[in-house]
Specification:
mainly alpha; flat; 411 residues; 16 helices; Receptor-associated Protein
Length: 411
């Protein structure tokens, strides 16, 4: 007789449960546990001397459910993994601890997915490569090098430091850019409200003067009339421009490259972006080279991490030169892109056999330079923005009161 194949039931994924109970002393206690079912959670609590009263699935708010995984979350994950591995916690147990401690459901799912891949027999680096939207080639290559060398905890610590430094640098750049953009947007909104709501009140007042209005006042009134009649078209055109910019930046490599070149030439902003690119170059190369990655392969990872097409092309040229036997510092100097300090420190590092240490110093120096520039730029932008707002709002006020002053002088 043919025996029927018995289907093995699928094991449910562990979920977070919130529980309430009473301990041995009769005190009410609460907490959270991860498990496959309420019955297993209750059994686990009884083993700990807790009489469970309520066990229910932890509810997820609509806000946290759609919370995206940010690069900073990945940096924090790297640091947690490094800490767990240094403490001697087994890899699979480290995933469980990090998953339970994460407040972001999407991050919990990501960690659980990685754990399942590792539990199935894949390497940690292979599991990370299944999620390229969160872990880039550099991240995966460093973890792979750590696994092969038997120094995963050390490499994870380097990865964590690299991600933290990189995200800190990005945050400083965003801080420098966001403040003036936000104030300019507010200035446009305030100006629009004044032109659409306030200026028409003065316009009805001027209609009874019967005198010729100053040219400046006429210009402001005409602008106000245009916005009243066509505000919807202006708004649609503005959103269309923003959408077209984002679309072109996402799909057109030529547009991105042109924007990179243009931004480096912009006063104040250009030097800030330039120094941040140098810092990223040095930080990435120091991290990969210290991990034992060959210099040519390390440069391959560095080219995409600089964040600017000019530096990407320069690094690719350096890679070609180094692969033919040229010294790194000599090739960097020949590109004309890298600053003298970075080239000289690289030369010292090559001569002394401490290239990773010198590159790390270069990265730290330029990261501090970026930090100082952001602070200086913020201090400089505040009075400048106030002056611009004063000119815009003050100009509108003067335009509206000029006819009244002119009428007063005639009387």
């Amino acid at each position: 007789m043919a025996t029927k194949a018995v289907k093995t039931p699928k094991v449910a994924k562990p979920v977070v449960y919130v529980w309430e109970g009473v301990d041995r002393k009769g005190a009410k206690v609460t907490g959270e546990l991860t498990g496959h079912s309420p019955a297993l959670i209750k059994a686990q609590l009884r083993k700990q001397g807790v009489n469970p009263l309520k066990v229910r699935k932890k509810s997820v708010s609509i806000f946290s459910a759609g919370k995206k995984i940010k690069p900073l979350d990945i940096a924090f994950f790297s640091r947690q993994m490094a800490t767990m591995m240094k403490a001697g916690v087994p890899l699979l147990q480290s995933f469980d601890i990090i998953s339970e401690g994460s407040a972001n459901p999407n991050m919990r799912k990501l960690v659980d997915d990685i754990k399942q891949e590792v539990a199935a027999g894949h390497s940690f680096a292979t599991a990370l490569r299944q999620k390229p939207q969160y872990f880039d080639d550099l991240f995966c290559n460093l973890v792979d090098a750590g696994e092969q060398a038997g120094a995963l905890e050390s490499l994870l610590d380097r990865v964590a430091t690299y991600k933290e430094k990189t995200e800190s640098l990005k945050a400083k750049i965003k801080k420098a850019m966001t403040y003036p953009i936000a104030v300019v947007i507010v200035a446009f909104i305030v100006t629009g409200i004044l032109l659409i709501k306030v200026v028409p009140q003065f316009q009805s007042l001027f209609a009874g003067f019967g005198a010729e209005l100053p040219a400046f006042t006429v210009m402001v009134i005409n602008l106000s009339q245009y916005l009243q009649d066509y505000w919807f078209i202006v708004l649609v055109a503005l959103f269309a421009m923003i959408f077209a910019f984002k679309r072109a930046h996402k799909t057109s490599e030529k547009f991105r490259n042109g924007l990179d070149r243009t931004l480096l030439k912009v006063p104040v902003i250009g030097p800030l972006l330039y120094k941040s690119a140098v810092a990223r170059f040095a930080r990435t190369l120091a991290t990969t080279f210290a991990a034992g990655v060959p210099l040519v392969d390390a440069l391959d990872s560095v080219s995409g991490a600089t964040g600017n097409i000019i530096f990407k092309n320069a690094v690719n040229k350096v890679k070609q030169d180094v692969s033919t036997g040229m010294q790194l510092n000599f090739s960097m100097r020949s590109t004309g892109v890298f600053p003298t300090l970075a080239v000289q420190m690289t030369a010292i590092g090559e001569e002394s056999g401490a290239l990773d240490s010198m590159l790390d110093k270069v990265a730290t120096y330029y990261e501090e330079e970026v930090d100082n520039m952001v602070d200086s730029l913020t201090s400089l932008m505040e009075p400048m923005i106030m002056a611009v707002l004063g000119v815009i709002v003050g100009g509108l006020v003067i335009a509206m009161y000029l006819p009244i002053f002119k009428l007063g002088s005639v009387v």
